[in-house]
Amino acid sequence: MSNSNNQKEFNIAVLPGDGVGPEVVKEAIKVLNKVSEKYQIRFNYQEGLIGAQAIYKYNSALPEETKEIVENADAILFGAVGDPAFDKDPNAKVRPEQGILQLRKLLNLYANIRPIKTYKELYSKSPLKEEIINGVDFVVIRELTGGIYFGEPRGRTENSKKAFDTCIYSDEEITRVGRIAFEMARKRRNKVTVVDKSNVLATSRLWKEVINNLHKEYSDVNLEFLYVDNAAMQIIRRPADFDVILTENMFGDILTDEASVITGSIGMLPSSSIGEKDGKRRGLFEPIHGSYPEGAGKNIANPIGTILSAADMLDFLGLDEASNAIRNAVDKTLSDGIFTMDIANENYMSCSEMGDAITSRI
Ligand code: IPM
Ligand code: MN
Does residue 2 carry a pLDDT above 80? Predict the structure, then answer.
């Protein structure tokens, strides 16, 4: 990654994808170019097609060309996938979402990290009362390559009158993501909440057993278990009580969408997906808002989720000084009263103006 002159150089795969993806990724690149200049880091960007864009050109949501780019990259900056054109045909064989699902599997990105943090400038935008969201700062760690998303067998019975999916987990899959949760809790407020449905599901009972065993190595960390239905309630009732939430793939998908509304705008939230393959650490960084097709091409999306994802990417690459510069610039921009349309009702900035505002504060 670094050459002999000690100049830092990284290969970044850039996958803008669909909807507002290209617009928000463009702003993140603007910010990265600024830190590149300021901290003398060289980024070699390689752009690849994914999602609906890739289907239109190659009839595949994750073409070979893109696979090669991501395999050889030090990190991946991702926009979004999804196109309503495909929602009309529920039997479509190729779907944009397959792009990200295949990518997670290809690179073994087994842990998805979604931090939920409130900003005081956005308190009035949250559907929850200020006293409830005051000081909320938790992280959801979602298992990302197992469970019902990938379990086999799946499909339809011969007469097509029934359909089935399989939820399956191994102890190794649970242990490796469990370690990430415990390690993270140690750097934070030392608490892990495991969300499961062990009163009903066999896989959840395995989760409970494996995590309880693993906890022996992390006995300094406080551990609790919540049933997912109850967790859905508690995340809204007392979000400030959580530190690290650890859960399986589908529960994590649902709970992170729920959690995102606490902060007042889903447009603010970054996420990281990490794992390892061929002895190399892998990381993909993306905003959690998705493709937002209604906003595409209008220059109205909030690029902060992607810009903060780029900051997480720099942490992953060991470039803490640069990542902190980005986060400080975002905080400064918000405290200067500069907002996009999802946050302000009037005098709001466009997506690209927000990118400029943050870049100029680095
Ligand atoms: C997410 C998304 C994906 C998922 C879709 C696009 C397949 O909702 O990243 O949360 O369900 O994991
Ligand atoms: Mn989701």
Answer: no
